[in-house]
Specification:
alpha+beta; Alpha-Beta Plaits; DNA polymerase, domain 1; Dna Ligase, domain 1; 5-stranded mixed β-sheet; 4-stranded antiparallel β-sheet; globular
Length: 405
């Protein structure tokens, strides 16, 4: 795809930020791995069960998007729109492996890489210009290397700040390449719909339209004071974004930002035993992944979606970092008890560990020396991990999970 005019590389006056977003990542990996799926509508996510499935779409190929299918759509609705589509389960380990390849390409050009997900990142290449040339050249090389190394397409946005770079990368998907020269941010954004502003959801968009603001340019034309009076701190933030102002730095992440697991029940449930079993199973999955990656969690988040599709989340900082399933489980149960009781059945539960740290670099060993019970629990957990690694995850399990296998 073509690019907008690139400005001069006046690196001393501004930053050069590249936003890279893989095109329909999960679905594209499946089409690459299975050539028979190429050109066909591929939907990755839950089992549609002939239209009776209860999960959601994780990714849709561009052929599937023609039918109005998109991520987070109920899988049953996706099936009704395209019953002839190729419905595939999520292969997260495969997508992670491809993601590692992609991020290795990024690392060739800068160490200032901020991952947003497996398939999306910001790169600050300001300090790379002397070595590799203008930002446009760097962006083109990265896009080409991703294609050559993985067989996948990526869209690239280049600008002087993160917000504008992200908007740019989304404009001409797939295989898009858009540069916004420094000083032209406001003009670039002017005609775009207000929904492209970060922080503008359906409610805020409705309020902006009632004010007569349909485009980002119309938001930029209002005074910052007026927007702040109407929307509070969000209003002042929206005004800055509408001007193309975003001073946030690219913050490198050395390790994964979070590890999570969630499940959608085949039928909505209010059964407390089943809910507890599910939370324990999710905690086991998350803790096992933490141990495999030699990580510990400092924060735990519980996600609950009820039968009306209302989603609630609660987070808490742990007293000390952990990779033990029992610690995660009891914390999740505590968070569950804190959620206001609505009387509605539960549709989905999720457990996510974040604020991750390297286990080898923590004070965990000293803590265990002072806590014989903790040391015993870790030895037991490591023994279970060895058994499951050799004989499978069902070889040894908590007794409370046996009825749910």
């Amino acid at each position: 795809m073509g690019s907008m005019q690139a400005g001069g590389d006046r690196s001393g006056e501004h930053r050069w930020i590249i936003h890279i977003d893989m095109d329909a990542f999960y679905a594209s990996v499946e089409q690459r791995d299975h050539p028979v799926y190429r050109g066909r509508p591929v939907i990755v996510g839950a089992d549609p069960k002939s239209g009776k499935g209860r999960g959601v779409v994780s990714a849709a190929s561009y052929e599937a998007r023609v039918f109005g299918i998109h991520s987070a759509m109920p899988i049953s609705q996706a099936y009704r729109r395209c019953p002839e589509g190729v419905f595939l389960p999520v292969r997260m380990s495969r997508y992670r492996a491809v993601s590692v390849q992609i991020f290795q390409i990024f690392a060739r050009y800068t160490d200032l890489v901020e991952p947003l997900s497996l398939d999306e990142a910001f790169l600050d290449v300001t300090g790379s210009l002397r070595l590799f040339g203008p930002a446009e050249i760097i962006g083109r090389r990265i896009q080409a290397e991703i294609r050559a190394g993985t067989g996948l397409g990526a869209s690239v946005g280049i600008a002087a700040n993160k917000f504008v770079a992200k908007v740019a990368s989304d404009l001409r998907k797939p295989n898009g390449f858009v540069i916004v020269p420094p000083g032209q941010e406001a003009g670039f954004l002017q005609g775009l719909p207000i929904e492209r502003l970060w922080g503008v959801g359906p409610k805020t968009a409705g309020r902006l339209r009632r004010m007569g603001c349909m485009t980002i340019g119309e938001v930029a034309a209002r005074s910052q004071m007026e927007l702040a009076a109407t929307f509070g701190q969000l209003g002042a933030h929206l005004w800055e974004l509408a001007q193309g102002i975003d001073t946030r730095e690219v913050i490198p992440e050395e390790s994964a930002q979070s590890v999570g697991a969630e499940t959608t029940f085949a039928e909505d449930t209010a059964d407390p035993v089943r809910i507890r079993q599910t939370l324990l199973a999710l905690s086991e999955r998350v803790a096992r992944r933490l141990r495999v990656d030699a990580l510990q969690a400092g924060v735990l988040t519980l996600k609950l979606r009820d039968e009306t599709f209302r989603t609630q989340t609660r987070s808490v900082s742990l007293s000390e970092p952990t990779d033990q399933s029992q610690d995660l489980y009891w914390t999740a149960m505590m968070l569950l008890e804190r959620l206001p009781s609505s009387g509605r059945k539960v549709r989905l539960l999720g457990v996510t560990a974040s604020k991750l740290s390297d286990r080898a670099g923590s004070g965990q060993q000293l803590s265990l020396e002072l806590d014989p019970a903790g040391a015993k629990q870790r030895r037991l957990t490591e023994a279970v991990d060895r058994i499951q690694a050799r004989f499978g995850k069902k070889a040894i399990r908590p007794a409370s999970l046996l009825s749910s296998s």
